[in-house]
From TrEMBL, chains A, B, C:
The lineage of its organism: Eukaryota, Metazoa, Chordata, Craniata, Vertebrata. Homotrimer. Interacts with LTC4S and ALOX5. Required for leukotriene biosynthesis by ALOX5 (5-lipoxygenase). Anchors ALOX5 to the membrane. Binds arachidonic acid, and could play an essential role in the transfer of arachidonic acid to ALOX5. Binds to MK-886, a compound that blocks the biosynthesis of leukotrienes. It is found in: Endoplasmic reticulum membrane; Nucleus membrane. The keyword Nucleotidyltransferase does not apply. This is Arachidonate 5-lipoxygenase-activating protein. InterPro entries: 5_LipOase_AP, MAPEG, MAPEG-like_dom_sf, Membr-assoc_MAPEG. The keyword Membrane applies. The chain crosses the membrane at residues 6-26, 61-87, 112-130. It comes from the Eukaryota. Keywords: Endoplasmic reticulum, Leukotriene biosynthesis, Membrane, Nucleus, Transmembrane, Transmembrane helix. SUPFAM superfamilies: MAPEG domain-like.
Length: 155, 155, 155
């Protein structure tokens, strides 16, 4: 019974696992920085702040990705999640490297999150349409979403 | 198959989307405050602290709302979620306005969260009752929950 | 319809509720410390920092526990969740008591999280195996997971 549901979410689970690994990587970096550089507190401050920024937007990201995956289709949602994780990695590593690069970063990965947000809205809209008129545009919409997710790769 | 499940959660998804929009609004406020008032750091500190308080309780809120919606019924859970988002908005805007109003705010929206919490417990209790005795009080309980959620509006 | 799904997750919901209660307990501690000891700011700083560490890893914990419970079986996942909550309680109380004990704590409960992580991977791997070969090792794997979760109690 439940395995039918799991078939529809296992890509989302995979991306969630990768994000957990990334969180662990970030936490390890912060921990090591805190231990090694007791004198150089500014480096620790910076890494810790970056980690905080990343963790602040983490629940939001998880919620939007899962909603998008459940409402419409898991494949484009999982792909967008991967792109987001890539952007986060780039943001974290870039932050660690140089002091000069002080992007506020509360809203990095804006494009990916907006895309997932749109997917949710389209999914719910589609559900209401199906209820009212009985026409199912879901296949069409899913194809468009999968194609549109490829656009996220354009920098 | 999955669309049957989605019918039972689309109100929860909608409230989640609204909360994500609110998060984005908070983050934008913090970002703008950080850029504009480099001299006036106390304002930035305050907004940033408020944002942190809001984000700290965000995963808790999401977890309780989804559990309540899944265990019992989505309509009262989504309504309580909306009331919580309203309280959060009021808290954030009030915090930004005046320095004097320094509510600790770790536990704002206590009443709504307690209500959602109760809904979860009632839902699980109901499930166990159904398993043991075969009586289904779910319809009665759902009606009571929907009626009780209107009580949340009383200030 | 949905009640069939709820049967498979109600243990996870229970553990989530317990974790929410713990969050409320932590927040109350921080609030009281902030009110009572205005002079003694170091104590407040410490409790607040501990609370932050706990809340930082909270979404990660929730995500891993739910994925493990959905992919494989809820009983060992919920048990591992309980063990994690116990470790968190011990960490928080120990942090409050003494200044000397300054464990970084970004990664407390590493063993439990790794176990849940492994459960997810095994669950997804099992799903793929079932798809390709049609053999269902799920019962065997679930038994092993339940037995392995008892190993978590060894300190």
């Amino acid at each position: 019974m439940l395995s039918v549901v799991v078939e529809h979410i296992f890509l989302l689970v995979l991306v969630t696992l990768i994000s957990v690994l990334q969180n662990a990587f970030f936490a390890t970096k912060v921990e090591r920085e805190g231990k090694e550089h007791h004198a150089n507190t500014s480096a620790f401050e910076r890494v810790s702040c970056t980690n905080r920024n990343c963790m602040d937007s983490y629940p939001t990201f998880l919620a939007v990705m899962w909603c998008a995956g459940l409402c419409l289709n898991q494949a484009p949602a999982a792909f967008a999640g991967l792109v987001y994780l890539g952007a986060r990695q780039k943001y974290f590593v870039g932050y660690m490297g140089q002091t000069s690069q002080s992007t506020p970063g509360f809203l990095f990965g804006k494009r990916v999150l907006s895309f997932l947000f749109l997917m949710c809205i389209v999914g719910i809209f589609n559900l209401l349409l199906v209820r009212c008129f009985g026409n199912d545009f879901k296949d069409t919409v899913e194809t468009i979403a999968t194609a549109a997710s490829a656009l996220l790769l354009i920098p």
